[in-house]
Known about the structure:
Mean pLDDT: 93
Order of helices and strands: EHEHEHEEH
Radius of gyration: 13 Å
Distance between the termini: 24 Å
Low-confidence stretches: none
Number of strands: 5
Structural class: alpha/beta
Shape: globular
Largest sheet: 3 strands, parallel
Amino acid sequence: MEAQGVPFALVSASPRVVVDQVVGGALAHVPFAFTLSADDTVRTKPHPEPYRAAAELLGLEPGECVAVEDSPDGAASAEAAGCPVLVVPSMLDVPRSAARTFASSLEEVTPELLRGLRRTAR
């Protein structure tokens, strides 16, 4: 995404201290446009507020964004916000729905796949 000039953000239900630790450590090389933690919104996942806030910070409508999620609460949050959802399961089963596309690994995810999932602004 970076090579194609597409901004991306980390939207987490973890507290800011955890997000900052991960982004400063294991994900230090990832050029997120911004990170959003559970401390940055009044309500966190599975409420849609985190993804609505992220879309707003990107200057986009939620339907123009694609949420890549690995958890039931995250997928529910993104879907309720109006984002198309790409689920790459991790430890928990994520229920299927019409707004969710599934990939078995991030290695399957291409910019073309993500672009195909976006909807035009409503």
